[in-house]
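**User:** Everyone, produce a chain:

**Assistant:**
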Amino acid sequence: MLVKMKVTGLTMDPFTNAPIVILKDQEDKNALPIWIGLLEASAIASELEKMEFSRPMTHDLVEDILKRMDVTVTKVEVNDLKDNVYYATIHMEKGGDKYAIDARPSDAIAIALRVSSPIYVDTRVLDKSRSIDMRNAQGGKKGDGKDNLLELLEDMSPEAFGKYRM
């Protein structure tokens, strides 16, 4: 089963200083933190901030190619989690033909934001993500009094996400 989610913010992992994109469902019942690279975080942040550049960035280029080729992104799915690695699929349509393209979640999310496509997460991914000790998975250290980083992120208020919350 898929749960529709939205990007609610970008934050930094307090243990590794790696960027994290936070997805939450419409009712704020489920949160999914996904560790991403700096460049992908920048691509997501620039879209959240509606920044414009003199030359197209990679995800803007993909958006333009899709538009010019009359391809519609119908949805993005974060559909698996294996060995602490998230997997996503970009679903597209052109002239009645449907395509599913494997992608990193960060790229899929950056594109979905640009083309206003819905983002879904498989409930199995939500279940698997709850069972991971994120500090151990990310090489973090104990000391925050929480059982794991996921609980810390889920307990954060929207204000704690700072500049890039939605």
